[in-house]
Amino acid sequence: MTTTAPTDSAARFELAHMAHAELYTPDLEGSLWFFTQLLGMRETGRQQGSVYLRCYEDPYHHSLKLTERDQPGLGNIGWRTTSADALERRAAALDAAGLGLGWTQGDLGVGRTFAFQSPDGHPMELVWDVEKYRAPVELQSRILTRRSKRPLQGLPPRRLDHVNLMASDVTVQKELFEQTLGFGTRERVVDGAGGGTEIGAWMSVNVLGHEMAIMRDQTGSKGRLHHLAFWYGVPQHNSDAAELCREYGIQIEAGPDVHGITQGAFLYVFEPGGNRIELFGNSGILQFEPDHETVTWDLSDFDTGLAIGGGTLPAETYFVYGTPGTDGQDKLLDGWKDRDLV
Amino acid sequence: MTTTAPTDSAARFELAHMAHAELYTPDLEGSLWFFTQLLGMRETGRQQGSVYLRCYEDPYHHSLKLTERDQPGLGNIGWRTTSADALERRAAALDAAGLGLGWTQGDLGVGRTFAFQSPDGHPMELVWDVEKYRAPVELQSRILTRRSKRPLQGLPPRRLDHVNLMASDVTVQKELFEQTLGFGTRERVVDGAGGGTEIGAWMSVNVLGHEMAIMRDQTGSKGRLHHLAFWYGVPQHNSDAAELCREYGIQIEAGPDVHGITQGAFLYVFEPGGNRIELFGNSGILQFEPDHETVTWDLSDFDTGLAIGGGTLPAETYFVYGTPGTDGQDKLLDGWKDRDLV
Amino acid sequence: MTTTAPTDSAARFELAHMAHAELYTPDLEGSLWFFTQLLGMRETGRQQGSVYLRCYEDPYHHSLKLTERDQPGLGNIGWRTTSADALERRAAALDAAGLGLGWTQGDLGVGRTFAFQSPDGHPMELVWDVEKYRAPVELQSRILTRRSKRPLQGLPPRRLDHVNLMASDVTVQKELFEQTLGFGTRERVVDGAGGGTEIGAWMSVNVLGHEMAIMRDQTGSKGRLHHLAFWYGVPQHNSDAAELCREYGIQIEAGPDVHGITQGAFLYVFEPGGNRIELFGNSGILQFEPDHETVTWDLSDFDTGLAIGGGTLPAETYFVYGTPGTDGQDKLLDGWKDRDLV
Amino acid sequence: MTTTAPTDSAARFELAHMAHAELYTPDLEGSLWFFTQLLGMRETGRQQGSVYLRCYEDPYHHSLKLTERDQPGLGNIGWRTTSADALERRAAALDAAGLGLGWTQGDLGVGRTFAFQSPDGHPMELVWDVEKYRAPVELQSRILTRRSKRPLQGLPPRRLDHVNLMASDVTVQKELFEQTLGFGTRERVVDGAGGGTEIGAWMSVNVLGHEMAIMRDQTGSKGRLHHLAFWYGVPQHNSDAAELCREYGIQIEAGPDVHGITQGAFLYVFEPGGNRIELFGNSGILQFEPDHETVTWDLSDFDTGLAIGGGTLPAETYFVYGTPGTDGQDKLLDGWKDRDLV
């Protein structure tokens, strides 16, 4: 059986966590309404048409950058290393793997980064130098580990949690992240009837059940985003969020329910730009074992993996819809275009 | 617009609440396992093959009687009146409506009752004399409004909550209960495309959003049970119950989610005898207005009515499966017969 | 043992529920910030310096009227009857009891009322004609029993729930409400060491565990308000509210915890005007029995009555602070005057 | 400002997590009742008078060993390293620090360990070889990351979470764990009036807000236990646990509420043997930053640190009671000796 975090890998302990993400949106105003008015995220900057946002417990300048584009999709994922040296070592390893794109000047609140792409072409970067967020006096919290007051606007998640990527080949994607960046694969789904093809993998560089998931893109597309997730940590908040989405015309795809895989409390919605967003209502299973073995789900026993309750994941969207869309996919969301923004 | 609780009706304020229910089960041992081991109900008596159970906050001797029969289904629903005189008046009214079956000697913990049937044939009775439950010393709670200690076994609901009946004609059933027994109709669903046919009604004799629901039986059968519901009142407990049902092989039909209709937090499962049981995780909307108007949902806008979140009610079971089953219906539950009872 | 809702009382079934309340505040701006920004209530009118507010599921024009005065305190409590005739009958009964003050022209959204005072002088009125709230299109909810959309501002309670009055003589106050207005006394606390003096009573005209509580005023004052309560119905929301109060400088007195008495999930805070407000995170025990006996707590076994968890009610405020304050009482809140309103 | 996890320390990344703990109890039967009947832990072995228990998601043979002794207290804490080599390196470092006690043969389900003591004398060990728990078929969960089915008995926590130690000198204790074992100090409390004396520190080897806390022992005793904590992760479960403790006569010291420090949802109770047990209802703040700075609370601003809500920590027990007790301390729990075990 596979050991997910080989104790002898040079890549182990080199990445700390996901620090920021960029989403493209064809409806910047609508997306901003969703993230700031319904999810209560606060704006921390604007530059060249992009808007920078953070949740109230996110540690850095921003966790989400929204950029207007013709098509929704993933603009970037930034992984923070555990040290400055680790950044250099992982950059070299990515170059050796043929995936490095080179050093960048960074961004608002982000220093020098090493850009790379996943085997499937997802845009990513590694970073060490980041600007820690310091709240102005009126936003400082009496709860000292909280980087800013909990907002009174909307139903605010506490931080950026994880990303789920669709990939043309799950195994290739997974092995690169294991070997080059030290990810441990906590769980995977295998299609036994399909000769053991991996159709999903849930990976982490720390005790979280996953910070990155990879799911097979049934359309055969490459480099698409399945969803970006924000963390409430409190199950009730997923129910509250579902209610607000229902009230304000944000399309709910599935949930609230709890996945068997990762034990994550999920609510999937589509933000007005078309990207799927997950709201995460617990911490899922935390994995402390240093020599944890990857848990393997067979497709034939997958129902518990998808949902512990009766919540089903709609096959017509969940397993095929990603961003950017493929031809015709934008119609999947047509019924919801007349949302009630107040 | 209809006024649900006409201020001049002689039937108003005559019924207090649902006091007890009887279920038939072809698998008494399995049903008992479910109600006592998973739901933590306590047995308070056995007589002639029936077992009497109560939740820890139920006020009377029992709230549920389980009786072995070839087919699952509803054995009885007992409504308690607001006074001894009200019982006499309502018995006379039922006789006048041609639905009275006559007086009975009662049952364990239940005095003289007036038996009747709904227009569709559902067996019911009215009662005034009941035995209040008095816990033995070791089960007495320090919380004085609690009739017995919260059990340490399973995930115990607090009390019997409501019943949902399938009916061949919703309107006929509804009007009898409004006019003869003083029920207010809080909400109803109308099939506008079907010329305004009522396909569902939610009724109450007190501030609860519903103590009885009536839904159209699409199979054309008469007198069947849709579900019996038990109350947690705490949303998290519905998630906990879903997890336990998943762990121990009890089939989950739908939920946890929240209906738009009644705003009730639902989890539907099938107990081993085949009856659908709802676990109710909040109090739903409470209706205090004495002159509340019935809220009407049109079938074309029904999705929010069914679920506020993404939880769907599976059409292949939710709208057709009832107990007793019609030919072939028992196969709907076949996949779950191998439950893991520990 | 006392039967709380005598089945032969002419007053039974005459009152439906508490419809509205008025609070005085010496800091109208601060109070408005609390009720609209933190609790997300919406303004529905202004008149003669008073501001009218409602929760998103309150059925009528308003549930709370805020009026600026030198001292905080209770301006009014409005009880709605179950019919127009019941209003006339109860007005006559109050007149006969010597407590009637006469008919009024009503208020914004409120028709003709019959004003009276409690034996201790608390200002109250009975009403039948009220204006049902009709939301403008942009505030209409898809959940049809919800009178308006759940707000995105603050942490909004769903409706006005109950009032707690301090009284110089609990028994006198209680008996008037039982005999003249048909309240049932669900629970009471008796000081056994004090010869059986009643020091608290929890009363209701419907299945709620209490819509009015009466607690002995240890300062010997008359006609003071202990607290006014708003309902979340969801336990987690009380924790969320505590966090927001802590973040934004609203003084928390006690909670979140659950009282043994009424089984109510409580959080007590002081709104900026100085009135104590309770946020209510469940529905408490619901009492369906038409012949329920009053539960009596002895002071010597009172700890479970106050709190099921470890949450204590601070003796230096909880049992003596009311509004309007007595000499020196306003200093109890001094430490919190520098709240962080954003 | 201190950086808690120096990026150049050889001790960094050497410890994985707390694997097991041993408690002494003068009332083995009572303690077993509490841990197995109320908390639903399952017994996995007995040996020489000790009983081995685990929560349903604990990864190894056991997480808790109960041993009968005259006095309650801490028998052992076992920390698992991230590799076999790390164990050797940390053993050498402990020897160099003069705290090593030598290698042991291990225990049931535990291989060779390196025993040591904290500067204050708390008994501990490091371990790499542990027996992973494999559930028998009837206890295997369909949720594959769950090592065994969620029990139907009591209100089961999911895993052992953290330990809180009382120490005669917080700083000495803290620095040893930082320098020798790679702990990061997430938060600390300093008595500014006392010249900056540290009176509390919360430390972790992973993203948890704390796996070990150290609080100043005001009695001047050495090596005592403040509490051992088990994790629910769901806030509602802390309320449920409080209710069950109240019902079954287990003394509640404080909570449910949420600490500002660690943002942990706490409930403190005393198990029948006298040890303080914390039930942990969320995950607290998770700390992902590799270069996180220690957050410092001043004693003068400590109230939010202790509790976000109104829940106070009783000074007469919380800051002085530990196990084993000092003279007279056992009387603190006298009032609760007559618990109602059913």
Walk me through this protein's architecture.
Chains A, B, C, D: It comes from Actinomycetospora chlora. Four copies of one chain form a homotetramer. By secondary structure, chain A is an alpha/beta fold. Chain A has a single domain, classed as Roll (2,3-Dihydroxybiphenyl 1,2-Dioxygenase, domain 1), CATH 3.10.180.10. Helices cover 17% and strands 32% of the residues of chain A. The first copy, chain A, has six helices and 17 strands. Chain A has a nine-stranded mixed β-sheet with strand order 14-15-16-13-9-12-11-10-17. The first copy, chain A, has an eight-stranded mixed β-sheet with strand order 2-3-4-1-5-8-7-6, covered by helices on one side. Chains in contact: A-B, A-C, A-D, B-C, B-D, C-D. The C-D interface holds C 235-236, 239, 242-243, 246, 252-258, 260, 265, 267-268, 304, 308-312, 314 and D 235-236, 239, 242-243, 246, 252-258, 260, 265, 267-268, 304, 308-312, 314.
